[in-house]
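Worked problem 6 (solution included).
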Amino acid sequence: MEKAKPWRVLAIESSCDESAAAVLDEHRGLLAHRLFTQIALHRRYGGVVPELASRDHVRRLLPLVRGVLHESQSGPRELRGVAYTAGPGLAGALLTGAALARSLAYAWGVPAVGVHHLEGHLLATRLEAEPPPFPHVALLVSGGHTLLAEVLAVGRYRVLGETRDDAAGEAFDKTAKLLGLPYPGGPELARLADEGHAGALKFPRPMLDRPGLEFSFSGLKTAVLHAVRDRTLSEASRRDVACAVQEAIVETLVAKALRALEATGLEVLVVCGGVAANRLLRERLAREVHARGGRVHYPRLELCTDNAAMIAVAGLARLRAGEQDDLGIRARAQWPLESLRPIEP
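Solution. The predicted structure is:
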């Protein structure tokens, strides 16, 4: 009997302002991944313009797909499926990737599966040389999402707490905008914060004064607005504001992550999403979690922000489990993580 060929999948990511494609092989690992960022396109507007993002995905995705197929020496005969981000995200941006992925899968005669964007982030560390064991706690923190989840296995997630309003990454970005920093503001604010004086200013630590694992960052944004509104800030004051905001966000994230480890009795923490690249957050978590005998895992820096490699990981697992879409082209702007179908071992 002819031996079945290994699972190799093409993945496409287009949930917001990053166009990306990747090829993942179950035995050989990540063979190729490419990304085009739309930062320059959206910078003049100070944030992502959904219609412009969708149009740019149309221009960028197919060349990226061609590039990763060439780099990985893959064609229709080598591929066994196509994965794409089906949500959550910007509806128009999602539809551009979904339409391309579904069309390629149909033309090649292979199954396609829509992947939950957050599941991709939660599984990004599966691409590392020493992936974290199950179960573990995950802190997913980005511009659009902030949540804590117990990751029991691939496909099995229990949300422990999430933001009631704004995400931590959004608090970074909005504060950066108030300080006149260019888009995307999070990394720029972190660089400015490194030059500030810790303790010069104090902003609220949202929801740390009450039990539980939920987050809220809208009050912090309001406090920053009142601190800088109608004032001409010196360069030193701008640095101190940035430092104080970063301290407030990082202290909140670290405290909640430690609470989640204690509540679940687990020792392993995974930190993913764009804010996982923040240096201060990494330093504080390393110190606090290691002091309790635990371990912290991160995706490599290039896989913290949106990318197609993480979509390939989730997509390969679901395709191997027999999941596949019908011929419809769908996108879900909202999609609860806990509604995902568990993958049987």
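Discussion: The two ends are 25 Å apart (CA to CA).
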